[in-house]
C-alpha cells in the first residue's frame, strides 16, 4: 500500500458528455485493423487527343504548334 486509508470519499472522474452536432463520419477502428484513408476518392482526368494533330495532352487546349495538316 502506498497511501494510508482516509475517511474521505474516493475521487470520481467527470462524466463524459456527448458533444452536440453531427456525429463523426468514420467509426473508431480497433488497433488491429488497417487504418482508413482520407475518405476521398482520388481520380485524374483522362488524356485528351487533339483532333487536328493527334497530340495527347492532359487539357483540352490545342497545342500551339500543330504537327501538320492544312487548317
Automatic annotation (TrEMBL):
Where is the segment annotated Disordered? 1-38
What domain of life is recorded for the organism? Eukaryota
Compositionally biased tracts (Basic residues): 15-28
Q: Any idea what this protein is called?
A: Uncharacterized protein
- Give the species this sequence originates from: Trifolium pratense (Red clover)
